[in-house]
Amino acid sequence: MTPTGRQRRETVRMQAAELFEQKVKPSEVARRLRVSVKSAYQWHQLWRDGGVQALASRGPSGSRCRLSSRCLEKLAVYLEEGPAAHGWVEDQVWTASRVVTLSGRKFHISYSVSGATRLMHRLGFSPQVPARRVAERDEKAVSTWREATWAEVKGPGRPAGATSASRTKRASPDGRPGDGPGAGAASRRS
Q1: CB 96 within 8 A of CB 113
Q2: How confident is the model at residue 174 (pLDDT cuts 50, 70, 90)?
Q3: Element (DSSP H or E) covering residue 59
Q4: Angle, in degrees to the nearest 10, between helices 96-107 and 69-81
Q5: Dihedral, 46, 48, 49, 50 alpha carbons, nearest 10
Q6: Which of 70, 80, 64, 82 is nearest to 107 (CA)?
Q7: Which one, 33, 72, 81, 102, has the greatest CB density within 10 A?
Q8: Closest CA to 130 of 90, 82, 103
């Protein structure tokens, strides 16, 4: 099993604490552990004030989950059952907005769409975006439209190499002063 990002960061902080105990300077700790100098100095300050325990992880940051562990287990079961079991029969896709609706119906707790996305990731699911294609879609008509009508609407475009990343005009080589950048600029302005 590979360590998570949080576990790797914890390991690096503990390695930093060991180096601080050996009187290694924070800038050298940063170089050895490949972290920013700012982080190394912050860790050094924490280590000086509170020892190794001050560098230990305090768990995940952010606000606590609004669903209890029991409710999270129930939500995972509901998600496993699929959308059709909860009234969405048009496709078998869990979207974040559907999870918002489901959590409101089942637990009387409202989540934002982004909050529902994080909740799904926490449970090992990922929100899916349904393909919004009608069953009666005529693929032949779509490809004909793309080949004929879209080509007319789109137009030929600009030829390659005719554009510039800058909206300003390129300076003329003849207008440049011969003795270096900006030379003679004062005399031209007057």
Answers
A1: yes
A2: low
A3: none
A4: 130
A5: 80
A6: 70
A7: 102
A8: 90
Find the distance separating the first CA and the last CA of the chain, reported in whole Å. Answer: 72
Q: Which two structure tokens, joined as six digits, stand for 95?
A: 């979207």
pTM over 0.70: no
75 closest CA partner among 92, 93, 98 = 98
Would you place residue 137 in the very low, low, confident or very high pLDDT band (cuts 50, 70, 90)? Answer: confident
Q: Do 20 and 29 contact (CB within 8 A), yes or no?
A: yes
Per-residue burial over 134-167, b if 16 or more Cβ lie within 10 Å, else e, is: eeeeeeeeeeeeeeeeeeeeeeeeeeeeeeeeee
* 91 C-beta neighbours (distance < 10 Å), count: 13
C-alpha 128/C-alpha 108 separation (Å) is: 23
Q: Which helix (H) or strand (E) element contains residue 60?
A: none
Tokens read off for 24: 């290694």
